[in-house]
């Protein structure tokens, strides 16, 4: 009876999830999911290929999948929460049955399907060994997938629990940052252990047990099954803890002292930074990542990376805050209703006040320890700080991922939005863009030494000012649309592509040329050519700037960068909806739909 | 006299659904205006467009003659808004929210401090001095929302469902405040689906149904000889209005 009931619960929950996913995958989210699935399929194909190379690489491959399942959701959005335990809290299900139902529903989705495809490598390994091994591969695949999914759920639940208290949030931030940094610097540990190739440890991680079983160590199959039961029990227990409400705060509050609108925004933001435990977690994560990443080569006695700790912290912290406006949810209405105050500038100042002191202290202290290279480091510091403080509001209003309003969030504190794919994409975009803002100052510093510092201050200030201005303009012209995205949780269906359809043939051609070829002057002829010039590489293949007389090399590369940016700007100008360029209300009888230039 | 709020031809389409179909309304100065309608009739959409929080597909909205879209600074300074269910700066206490918004509105620091103290005391939020807004109950959220709408002493209040989830004692307080506001020359637009409340408070009513104005005028013009509830059901109810019973609920 109990088994039958559990089966019914499991199937019902799985059907519910299928229905919810069908409704959720529309518009941009479908695109994100499609891109994710395509990337995942590529990774899965690569993993299956490893099975043909040999067992060691395959075991290492599965270790990477395991880490992806555990760490991925912690960094971005708290993992798959289509079905939440809270939905079922009134049904009186036993924790174990609920966990079993949620587990089965957790298998429905893109990520599990992709992982199962990757686990086909076990089947390949089995077929290459014999009939019995092939037969063992099937249950091994299912159990291995269950271990992936369950370890992911348990680790998210544990971090969620830690995020209910400040010490927990800080501790888990430090720990997660250290783990991710260690993964990024895994070569250091290889060198330390004198290891070449794949470390033996990958065989003994739970990710290797499936492969062990297929290779004839039958105990591993039993161990996998046992681990699944153990994790299921742990998850069921954690689900019970999750529904408890967070404690109310009773601490005394320091009074708000500023006397100006800008000061008020800074004070509000800084209070949010210190009181929101998710932001505490993100900040300590970025800090721990920067320090551990830069310090790990010290194990080898090499301190050359140490001065970059503060800079890595800036880049990581910017990525963590890439959805600044989205995480505040519909509170944007207050910004719309007070059009005379400048929300963006206040937030920029607050971002700097929260991050710059830490970054400056880290950078100066660590560079003093190693004794240099001062010009490069001091050039990058202001460039990246200004770049990040400019890009954070800009990216968050242009790439806004609708967040869940803080007072409506469910039991998982990591879950700030329903679109975790979008959040991840935005974070990576931010990483890349912030790094780019450091390139000019870095190049100048490498070539001319201390002049780089001036370049860094100038580009940093320009980014801060210019990107902030762009963000402000976007907020002013598209504020109501952004609020509507936040309210409904869905981006408008009309995309760039459909706007493109409304252009005339000439406009289409120009926009197409701009988008299609803008990258050529910008990247190879501009940025890359400048790198060659900086390295004194002359007359190099087709990079025009390297053929110029010495005085003209940088100007030519810079001109190409400007040309490339201008081409993208022109293309964007054509496809930008008219409402964002022409402020003011639409006149009656001239309907303006979001994202449509209704021109005859 | 310029109307406190004048909306003409406001239209909004969400996908296939016409949420507001050329809505015209005029709220005279000094009136207490009730907007009634079923769930999903278009009340929130209309009010959001009227105050500049949602861009209409067509039509215009003027607050004391100032266009909400072409002169947002002047128009929005004269209105206090209480939206339904939107977020606030959640990690601030009630007093901090008021301080923050007052400064944002360009008020003097001391004025903000004085008004915030009074508002918190009148709305009985001063006992929750250390509580962050994210930890507030639904009723408390309504009250702090009302406080933010009143803070800059606007001449027009636009309130979306101001009494939902508010306990009877607080509701009585809020009613007193709102009546005093109108008596002092202010104008109020509120939306509700509680007919008794609208009948009790408002002198003018508009009935919104399926994105259009089904009836508008003074309370007596709209309800005639019957109650507002009867008039409302007659206006918006389906033709076949036999209420069905749930057979499986009775033993």
Automatic annotation (TrEMBL), chain A:
Keywords: Membrane, Transmembrane, Transmembrane helix. Residues 579-600 are annotated as: Disordered. It comes from the Bacteria. The chain crosses the membrane at residues 32-53, 59-78, 99-124, 136-163, 175-198, 218-241, 283-302, 308-337, 349-370, 376-401, 422-442, 448-467, 509-534, 554-575. This is Transporter.
TrEMBL record, chain B:
Gene3D superfamilies: P-loop containing nucleotide triphosphate hydrolases. Residues 5-235 form the ABC transporter domain. It holds the Pfam family ABC_tran. Keywords: ATP-binding, Nucleotide-binding, Transport. CDD domains: ABC_DR_subfamily_A. GO terms for molecular function: ATP binding; ATP hydrolysis activity. SUPFAM superfamilies: P-loop containing nucleoside triphosphate hydrolases. PANTHER family: ABC TRANSPORTER ATP-BINDING PROTEIN ALBC-RELATED. This is ABC transporter ATP-binding protein. It comes from Microbispora hainanensis. The lineage of its organism: Bacteria, Bacillati, Actinomycetota, Actinomycetes, Streptosporangiales.
